[in-house]
Write a structure and sequence with these properties.
Blueprint (H helix, E strand, L loop, with lengths): L15 H52 L4 H32 L2 H23 L1 H7 L8
Length: about 140
């Protein structure tokens, strides 16, 4: 059996814990700085590569249109038809909106707005999963 009474306990020097915690904090700051730089470099690389891809795509379109000028007229006609159809749709929506506004009072429009708000709230609760949680807590024939 060993004589434990003569063993002396060695205590750490004053401020040891503070020095260790300061080293750990400094190490974490360096790691955070390194991660931030890596993230910034990756973000810059992704943005640059997307920009280059879009520029190449646009350049290929411009080159193909320049090589075959006969495609310019059909492209302009297609864009003008799209703009014309879009204008017609906006005009039709405007006429429908003004007709509904003139023929209905404010109360039905307020009711419709409330129904849309209620349906949006129901959709949001179903999409987030909170609607399912409320259904599992309802007991048949009584309170919760």
């Amino acid at each position: 059996m060993r004589n434990e009474t003569r063993a002396t306990m060695i205590a750490p020097s004053a401020g040891f814990t503070a020095r260790v915690m300061a080293r750990i904090d400094e190490h974490e700051r360096v790691q955070a700085r390194r991660r931030a730089w890596i993230g910034a470099i990756l973000l810059a690389a992704v943005v640059t590569s997307v920009f280059v891809l879009v520029a190449l795509w646009l350049a290929s379109w411009i080159i193909s249109i320049a090589e075959t000028p006969s495609t310019i007229a059909p492209i302009v006609l297609a864009i003008s038809k799209l703009l014309d159809n879009g204008g017609t749709m906006i005009q039709a929506l405007w006429v429908a909106g003004t007709t509904i506004d003139r023929n209905l009072g404010q109360a039905p429009l307020l009711l419709y707005a409330f129904v849309v708000l209620a349906m949006t709230a129901l959709w949001a609760s179903v999409a987030t999963g909170s609607f399912d949680n409320t259904l599992t807590h309802i007991r048949v024939g009584g309170l919760k």
